[in-house]
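User: Before I run my own analysis I want an independent prediction to cross-check against. Here's the chain; please return only the structure tokens and, at the end, one sentence I can use as a sanity check.
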Amino acid sequence: MRVLLVEDDRMIGAAVQQALSDAAYAVDWTTDGEQALAAALAQAYDLVLLDLGLPRRDGIDVLRQLRARDARVPILIVTARDEVEDRIAGLDLGADDYVLKPFDVQELLARMRAVVRRQGGSASPLLTNGAITLDPVTRDVSFEGRSAALSGREFTLLQALLVRPGAILSRQELEERIYGWNEEVESNTVEVLIHGIRRKLGPAVIRNVRGVGWRVDRAA
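Assistant: Structure tokens:
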């Protein structure tokens, strides 16, 4: 999953970026509201973590602009503003959740997973199509009863496919979900990761659609 982190505090931003990377998220980090708005409108993200007290453009205005343009990306406000009026304003403008600083990283990750589940219309913490089961919390993965430990990027790639079983994702779409800004992408990265997943879980876990991309089977 690819996340846009909007945080002007360098210490907090670096800590959150590292925690998200450790949890197998691809992270793009911006430090002001103008950059954040431009990035969110130009790139497809699975989630936005949005601070409110930002230079150049306030976070509330970023939120307002995104929702006015019908951006459906889940947005989780992460801020030190603890006034009830600020929380009400953020939620009424379309934020999906509101987390106050200081926060526990594990709680932040849990809230992120909950927001993404709600966006996908699922109450279950598990992603599954009947044959593949993936647990974003424990990062346990199984295919037709066979379990395996995947690397962080293998897990991210399979998760991207399993969010929409049956949908075909191209090489570029998969790379965008695996890598953040300034991360070097080798030409055969997707093939290498898929080979690793198939080797661990079985050749049928991911289907190749020649000349188009890759998919996992629809839910049975």
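Sanity check: The two ends are 24 Å apart (CA to CA).
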